[in-house]
Amino acid sequence: MNICTLANPIERKWFRDRVEKDENALQFTKNGKNAILNKLIQAEGFEKYLQKKYVGTKRFGLDGGESLIPALEQIIKIGGQSEIKEVKIGMSHRGRLNVLANVLQKSYKRIFNEFAGEIDSAGEDAADDVKYHLGASSDREFDGNPVHVSLTDNPSHLEA
Predict the structure, then answer these.
(1) Residues near 106 by Cβ (< 8 Å), separated by ≥ 6?
(2) Distance in angstroms (rounded) separating the CA atoms of residues 26 and 32
(3) Are 151 and 136 a contacting pair, CB within 8 Å?
(4) pLDDT range class, residue 59, cuts 50, 70, 90
(5) Could you tell me which residues come within 8 angstroms of residue 84 by beta carbon, excluding any fewer than 6 positions away?
(6) Cα–Cα nearest to 87, from 153, 135, 32, 139
(7) Which residue from 38, 49, 53, 93 could staple onto 60, CB 3.0 to 4.6 Å apart?
């Protein structure tokens, strides 16, 4: 395991002063905390379901990275408040299914159908590839601000 550290004490102090000061700490409302908790519960519940339903199936779960889901939601929400109209996400396999379900709000039914091999070869997802390479897009709204969110396809090295 390679852990990046700052060897120079002056650089380390500069970084620590900017990140760890109390005035830089994020402040969350009660509703904000509840929203984060709900997203974490959704992400973890989805992972647990996939683990039970598809035992031994390669699925590239979040495996401890569940905080990605509320973090992406917050980034998109703040982007919408800043009048950003579109967010494109590119990512490798790890956590894609969870991002599709819980950030892009792709229906569980569609995800499970694709997992069962029922991929619409005539539709836009016609990558003729495995289920965790597929992308999607959706229109989300946060505090009245519409944002189009898309997760790009991640084709296999054979397709690329």
Answers:
(1) 100, 136, 138
(2) 11
(3) yes
(4) low
(5) 147
(6) 139
(7) 93
Residue 5: the pLDDT is 66
Among 17-21, 29-33, 49-53, which range has the highest average pLDDT? 29-33
User: Would you state the structure tokens that stand for residue 60, as one six-digit string?
Assistant: 């590239």
- Positive or negative, the CA dihedral 4, 9, 14, 19 is positive
Q: What is the distance between the alpha carbons of residues 6 and 81, in angstroms, rounded to a whole number?
A: 34
Distance CA 148, CA 139 (A): 4
Q: Tens digit of pLDDT for each residue in 120-147? A: 654 554 445 566 677 899 999 999 999 9
CA separation for the pair 61, 46 (Å, rounded): 9
Pairing of strands 145-151, 86-89: parallel
101 within 8 A of 111, measured Cβ to Cβ: yes
For residues 118 and 109, what is the distance between their CA atoms, to the nearest angstrom? 11
